[in-house]
Amino acid sequence: MIDTIGQLLLLTLAAGTPLVFAALGELVTEKSGVLNLGVEGMMLVGAVIAFIVAATTKSAWLGVVAGMLAGAALALLFAVVTLTLQANQVASGLALSLFGVGLSAFIGLGYVSVVIEPIPPIAGVNPLVLLSLVLFVAIQWFLYKTRAGLVLRAVGESPQSAHAIGYPVVAIRYLAVLFGGACAGLGGAYLSLVYNPSWVEGTTAGRGWIALALVVFATWKPWRVLAGAYLFGGVTLAQFQAQALGVEIPAQYLSMLPYVATIVVLAIISRDAATIKLNAPASLGRPFHPDA
Asked: For residue 11, what is the DSSP state?
């Protein structure tokens, strides 16, 4: 019984890990006042690039690094368009997501049937699952226990004030966006190299959008993001268990279950609109120009 519970716990952690990476990265981005809706696209490009590099070099770890760099590269494109050229963040993020979906499908055409060796677990736990927990602790500490984290949150709350006292607001936002992109790419790399070691078009299955919802419904708190990600993982696992037991529910409904359950539960948890408004970075999605 204990072994079964332990196995279910490990499977839940594994299913929730890509969301942990993507949502925590987006949380840091939004804490700086930037709204990047391109998480799905960055995850997909990170996934396909990670898989291609791993298949070519026979090194899954090189694939992980490549996936992070690919996600960061798309995030840099978004940052240039929105932070330097002052384009609308919502429209640019949606365009980035669509671009990532199409680009990943195109460059992954020749790798659909390729087989690679996944990153092996350590004592039953994959190293990237452990890395996601380390990332959570690091972000929690950074945001609330360091001066740099305080500056990042100040930029998200009032970029004008932060600029007035000498902080490079645009540079800080660039770094936050790049970090978020690297985390999204890492989440994608985990999907194609560990969770389902293969490349399939649309392998993220909407997880990028769930990650965006997690950040808002978690009221920009890292521990709530972590809980929401594992909730998704647990319901995903329940879906597979139901299919294995032959539950007579159409497969389409079972596939919807993790997404619907995650959103419903998080919406109930955060039903206090005043709390969301209070915790949201005040300048979220608003352009800032130092010369304005």
From this structure: H
Distance between CA atoms of 232 and 221, rounded to whole angstroms?
17
Query: Domains of the chain: which residue ranges?
Result: 2-116+124-279
| pLDDT tens-digit map of 210-264 | 999 889 888 899 999 999 898 888 877 776 666 666 666 776 776 777 777 777 7
Tokens of 104: 């990943």
Q: Which amino acid is at 54?
A: A
pLDDT at 270: 64
Q: How far apart are the first and last CA of the chain?
A: 63
Helices and strands, counts by H and E, the chain: 12, 0
Enumerate residues 6+ apart whose C-beta is below 8 A from 146.
Answer: none
User: How long is the chain?
Assistant: 292
Count CA atoms closer than 13 A to 142's CA, side-chain side: 16
The CATH number of 2-116+124-279 is: 1.10.3470
Cβ-proximal residues to 215 (8 Å cutoff; 6+ apart), any chain: 23, 26, 27, 30, 225
The 8-class DSSP code of residue 249 comes to S
Distance CA 172, CA 278 (A): 23
Instruction: Judge contact between 233 and 16, C-beta under 8 A.
Output: yes
Report whether 144 contacts 192 (CB < 8 A): no
**Tokens matching residue 196:** 């389902």
Q: Which amino acid is at 183?
A: C
pTM of the predicted model over 0.85? yes
